[in-house]
TrEMBL record:
Coiled coil spans: none
MF GO annotations: peptidyl-tRNA hydrolase activity
Pfam entry (one): PTH2
Origin: domain of life: Eukaryota
Name of this chain's protein: peptidyl-tRNA hydrolase
Lineage: Eukaryota, Metazoa, Ecdysozoa, Arthropoda, Hexapoda
EC number(s) recorded for this UniProt protein: 3.1.1.29
UniProt keyword Lyase, yes or no: no
Organism whose genome encodes this protein: Lutzomyia longipalpis (Sand fly)
Catalytic activity line of the entry: an N-acyl-L-alpha-aminoacyl-tRNA + H2O = an N-acyl-L-amino acid + a tRNA + H(+)
Keywords: Hydrolase
């Protein structure tokens, strides 16, 4: 089992090298509510999109190589920017999960796993969350 896992990990990197998942969070919510809150919201968004897209071939391929999953966390400044991104993603038929707080305020979103070439152009203007 261990040898199989090492072999698989060493030689399966090509399987998911082009697959990526983007998570976009609101920086104003991060500042207002804290890291714990936005991390929890992001995890819930990721869990939801994974559950809802578990039959998708890209998602299955992504999870078959768990040691080489690639996620990118980006930030938007406020609700207006997040809502604009939502509209842009919808216009391109991109599947995502928008997470809302208990007060029904959009906090973050997680995009389904896609080939990087398909999704990266839609988020290229956003900056890494730091």
């Amino acid at each position: 089992m261990l040898i199989s896992r090492i072999f698989q990990s060493k030689f399966s990197w090509k399987m998911s090298e082009n697959l990526v998942q983007y998570i976009i969070v609101r920086k104003d919510i991060l500042k207002e509510r804290g890291l714990y809150f936005i991390m929890a919201e992001s995890c819930l968004a990721c869990s939801s999109i994974h559950l809802n897209s578990h039959e998708d071939p890209a998602t299955q391929k992504y999870f078959s190589d768990i040691d080489n999953m690639h996620k990118v966390v980006l930030g938007v400044d406020n609700e207006t920017q997040l809502e604009k991104l939502v509209k842009d993603l919808q216009s391109k038929d991109i599947v995502f999960e928008l997470r809302r707080s208990e007060e029904n305020i959009p906090t973050c979103l997680a995009v389904k796993v896609y080939e990087k070439s398909q999704i990266a152009p839609l988020v290229k203007k956003l900056k890494l969350l730091r």
